[in-house]
Structure formats: C-alpha cells, structure tokens
Please model this.
Amino acid sequence: MGLITQLLTLPLAPVRGAVWVMDQLVLTAEQQYYDPEPVRLRLAELERELLGGRISEEEFDRIEDDLLDELEWRQAWQRQHQGRS
Model:
C-alpha cells in the first residue's frame, strides 16, 4: 500500500484490526477442534479398557472404527490447511 492509500483508508484501521483478530480466533478454534491428539489418546485409552477387560472386543471394534474415521478426517483437514497459519 502506498502512503496515499494508507492515509485514505486510515479510518478503516480499527475494522481491519477487528477482522484480523476474528480471523486469528477462528484459526485457533479450528486448529483445536481438528487436533488429532485427543483422538489418539482416546484410542490408547480404549485399548487399555479392552486389555483390562472393561469392554468387549465387539464394543472395542465398533468404537475403534468410529475413532479411526474421526482421526482420518481430522488429519485430512490439517493436511489441507497446513500453510494457513
């Protein structure tokens, strides 16, 4: 931006600042929502439950399939949005 453009758009500076802050909040929220680590921790916990006899193999398989699907779409989202931050 040139000096003239900056001077003419100076009254919009607070709006640009607010938009930037909102963009950062959305980005942070998305990164936390799509973080695969909680799913990995739940998979490890699920395996401990199976080995401890607290759940059956059928229940383990059903929950594991759901968690693996969720992990896959979270990782796909992260790959798709890697360069955004």
